[in-house]
Amino acid sequence: MSMLERGATSPTLEKLDSLCTVLDTHPVTLLALTYLLGSEAPESFEQLLEKVGEELRALVEPD
């Protein structure tokens, strides 16, 4: 855990899922927060949710 906190390593998807279970948070929420905090061209929370929603719909809804 300390290696993650220091930025010495990146978590696997399995570790991310475990951390989110403990935090009672969906993994996508943590990924979105990380993106919003670290983005060079930050989007607002609302813009990010809208973009992700549109992209998910495009991937899962048949044409």
Q: Explain this structure to me?
A:
With 63 residues, the chain is mostly helical. It has one domain. Helices cover 70% and strands 0% of the residues. The longest helix has 16 residues, at 45-60. The protein is globular and about 45 Å long.
Write out key terms for the chains shown.
4 helices; 0% strand; Cro/C1-type_HTH; HTH cro/C1-type domain-containing protein; globular; 63 residues; mainly alpha
Task: Indicate the proportion of strand residues.
Answer: under 5%
Helix share, percent: 55-70%
Kindly give the count of domains. Answer: 1
Mean pLDDT equals: 84
Instruction: Kindly provide the radius of gyration, computed on alpha-carbon positions and rounded to a whole number of angstroms.
Output: 14 Å
Give helix and strand order, one letter per element, not per position: HHHH
**Based on helices, strands and strand pairing, what is the structural class?**
mainly alpha
Distance between the termini: 44 Å
Gross morphology is globular
Low-pLDDT segments, ≥5 res: none
Largest sheet data? none
- E-strand count: 0
Number of helices: 4
